[in-house]
Structure formats: C-alpha cells, structure tokens
C-alpha cells in the first residue's frame, strides 16, 4: 500500500456504497498504486452534502448498487468514468452519462458464465423438479408415500427438442444459448435488434418469441423499454406448457401477472433469481412446487466477485494511465 | 394375442399397463393374496414377464414360470436379471435403451448444477423467509470450465460429456477399454486417477460384478474435499456407507444422487447433510415423453416376439 504522504497526491475514486466484493472479500484485494478511494458511505453526511463538500475534483466513480443520476453527477463535474461491479446498469442514468461524455466500464464477461450456468440450472430444476423432489426425498416421502407424483407425468419435461426463447441475446444470453444447444434444444431470440452473424431465428417482439417458445429465458438489462416486457400478453402467448426463467431483473416481468398465471396454471412453471421488490417475494409462490426461487445469487460466487472487483480496479487504472478501458460498455 | 398371459411383477406406469391390457391378458402379481399360489395357478399360461430395473426377474420367479419365453424390462439396467441363466434357458430379454439417454444425461447435469450452485438450499432460503434477514452465503463452486470425469462412456456417459462440453468443461473418462472415437477426451485406466483429476465425477456405468462398489473409499478420497460425486447409474456402484462418512467428515465436497443401494431408503445422514447433497427419487427417466417411449418399447418387444419377428431392443 502507498505511504500516507504519497497517498494524498493520488487521484480519488468515489465509492458511494461499499461494493459487495470489498465487503465480502476484503478491500485489500482491490487497492491500487494509481488511485485512492473516497468513501461516501463512511461519512455521516447525507450523500449529496458529502459530494457538495468533497466531490469537486473527483474524476472517477466505482459504482455498485448505487443510483448515479443527474443530481449526483451535478455534484461531480470532473467525473469522466464510472466503473461498475454489477452486470446490470439499471441504476446508472445512461443517457445522462452519455450527455456528459462519461465512459462506463462494466463487468464485461466476468459474470456471463456463472449466470448462464445458473439459468440452465434453474431451467432443468423447474422442468425436472429437482428441488421439489429433493424436498420430497428429504422429508422421507419416497419411502413412505412412494414415487413423487409429478415425475414421469406431464408435469416433468424433456429438454431435447424444446424451443428456447432468449430475451436479450447479450453476453449472458449467448452463453445460455450455447449451453442449451448441447441438450438438443432449439434457440430463438428477441433483442433490440437482430445480431449480425448469429444464426438463431430473431423475433421482433417478445410476444412473437413467446408464442414460438416452450421456455423463455430473460437475460436482458432493465431499462425503461424493458420494464414489464414480459406482461399478460407475453405470458398468454407462452401458454400452459411454457416456463419462464429470470436471471435478469425482477422488473422485466409483470410480477403480479406472472404470479396469477402460475397460481391458475396459465403457465407451467418458473425459475426466478430476481424479483421486483427484493428481498420481498410474493407469498403465493412459496406454496408452489413448479417454481424454483433463489435470492439473487446467480453471480454470487467467490471467484466472480474477486474477478469483477479486480476488473473494476483494472479499468480505473487504465483510465488514470490514459489507456483504453478494459471493458467499456458500448450501448448499441 | 389377447389370450397370451403376461405377468406384471409390480405396478409400473399406468399407460404401460393400459397398453398391455389392450393386447394381452395381463396378470398382476401384486394384487394376488398369495403370490406363490397365484404363480402356481397360472404357471402353465404365463409366457412373458414385464418388470422394471429395480425388480428385474428374481431366480425364484424364473424358476416358478416354466413357460416363460420373454422378459421385457421397463429399464435400460439389467442388473436384476440373470442374463446368463436366461440365455441358457432360451428366455429372451429386452430393455429400453436410447429413449431414456437424454433424460438421464439432463438429470446428471441438473444434479451437478444443483449441488455446485446450491439450488435447493437457495430455494429453501427464499421460501423460509430467511432472505429478508440477510444475504444467502457466498457460493464458491462454479461449473463452467471445470474437469468432469465420467465413469462409463456408454450412450448415457457420452450424452453427459456432450452437455458438459457446452459448459466448456474438460472431459475425461474411465471405461473397460478406451474409446478411439472419443480421442478428444482423456482416458484413465484407473478410476482413482480419474477421480484425482476431476472436480466432478459422474457415475454412468452399468452395474455388473466388476462395477459393484467401483466408487470406493480410495476413489472418494482422490476426488477430495472440493470434489462432487454424481450418481445416475445404480446405487451399488458406490460404496454407500463410505460415501456417507466421507461427506460427513468433509473428505468429499458434495454429492448429487439419483440412485441408492436400498431404494427407496436413503441414509439418514445424507438427509442431515442438507445443502452438500441433492437427492432425487430414481427419476432419471422421469418425463412423460420418455416413460411413454419406454412403455412403447416394452410393448413393441413383446408384440414382435409373439409375432415371430426380431425383437426391437434385445439384450438376450
């Protein structure tokens, strides 16, 4: 670590909240000789007061789980880069950042494989009742009651030949597609626009995609355009044998409508890592065996947290060295 | 053909029973008050037995049926049928390969992900309301890019390998002899070496005299405290008490098990290990499409036999 005297000369990187990677793994893994951290969360001042007092010369932010909007940016006139440790960028006001010429460095591919693995895990779990039958066995019912009834019935589904609809064919969506192809699934997708060089069929709307899918896997970012993208019409198009897996953001689905569909059997099941109002989860879901839930932990592996923290540091070091960012977010 | 008597050893699958009843005279052993008496009364007419992997054809049953011509098993596993004896006596045997390969392979990967990423434990964390009190603990185990060792590279083992490759996993295997067509996978003549070089060890071999307890203490120790064992083959391929003590003592990191030595009984300690272990009730072939496909094969083999044609999927 740099000595206290040299420290004073280092440029500052604003931390609004303590990033999970720092809190869980220890800040010592994420220090740099090229900058020092200005920790807003350690001050008793409300954020905007703190920034008014200390934000004048800050050129970089390491954002994580914190809202960065116009009111924050107004108090940080010198900021030119935001490095984030989250895959989702929905807490950053991207148009504002673009307007002010602020570059964004995101998590790159660090999370892609972990989230893709998790999405596939949730899908298989829902289709083959892995968590539900694990419960059944551990409660002693296999011995006392016999076979778990959904198994071998129309409540359990084969993967081969299933039509997978990927909503948002970005880095994560692409990794999900690659994995499911190995199971004999066919892939189609919806994204803001068709991806050149991708051979999977593209559908203009999520509703059209849902009509032609047995399972929808949500891998898109949450933006104004994608809020409640999966709505009543989409769920109806997906149909009674359809399944939804959400590893994106709870807000991409009309949660109330989805719950109603699940309770009434209008769709066959769901695998959900995210919810509209975490950690609140609709109580109706707690009773359902055709739903698998997890507490927003698709990215939460030690390896990923370490990697994403290091990537953020690397991006910031590149910025302060006037080099290209390692993982610049291009909003295409 | 309606007069041909087919004995079902147990209730297997309602669609199967219905399809058999459409074509044959189906005798249900489990409905008899006195099983031996029932067999004595009908032993001159019973020409076929339909059974499943777990029940097979016991030596006693074989001896009680002098007119038995064919055993059509609702399974791919043949470990509960004395194939040598059947061959000797001219009894045909058929099974249900291929139709269930995908489902079993899917479950193997599903169990692997469920163990590594703690899916059932995460689900319970949400259902019990714990999430409102705090974050679920950090995971440490990823699947992508890990080394997967497969014991038995038959149809099912190969299907598992193909899926794991989609996750960027490195594949190695052990089987009786190396497979030249799988030269891109690493072959280990010793299961212990395979385990030592694997993060996840998947048992996908048939149960035979040679493979009974092929996963023993030495193999489990080689797999190690961060290793995960997945078994979708037969419970007896694994030394179950050794598996349990390794998990309890932390010498093995986790296990995903679809089969057990004494189904449907599962060692109590496996249940107490909770998130280290994911258990399934022998559900490898458990989708409607596959069970129907298996049932159609069982019926198809019987029909072929009684029509004097080639069996669809003969074993003997």
From TrEMBL, chain A:
GO molecular function: glyoxylate reductase (NADPH) activity; hydroxypyruvate reductase [NAD(P)H] activity; NAD binding
Domain D-isomer specific 2-hydroxyacid dehydrogenase NAD-binding: 120-298
Keyword check for NADP: yes
Tree of life domain: Eukaryota
Enzyme class: oxidoreductase
Assigned protein family: Belongs to the D-isomer specific 2-hydroxyacid dehydrogenase family.
Identification of the protein by name: glyoxylate reductase (NADP(+))
Domain D-isomer specific 2-hydroxyacid dehydrogenase catalytic, chain residue ranges per copy: 58-327
Gene Ontology, cellular component aspect: cytosol
GO biological process terms held by the UniProt record: photorespiration
Automatic annotation (TrEMBL), chain B:
Gene3D superfamilies: NAD(P)-binding Rossmann-like Domain
Residue ranges of every copy of the D-isomer specific 2-hydroxyacid dehydrogenase catalytic domain listed in the record: 6-315
GO biological process, one term: photorespiration
EC number(s) per entry: 1.1.1.79
Lineage start: Eukaryota, Viridiplantae, Streptophyta, Embryophyta, Tracheophyta
Protein name: glyoxylate reductase (NADP(+))
GO molecular function: glyoxylate reductase (NADPH) activity; hydroxypyruvate reductase [NAD(P)H] activity; NAD binding
Pfam families referenced in this protein's UniProt entry, alphabetically: 2-Hacid_dh, 2-Hacid_dh_C
Similarity section: Belongs to the D-isomer specific 2-hydroxyacid dehydrogenase family.
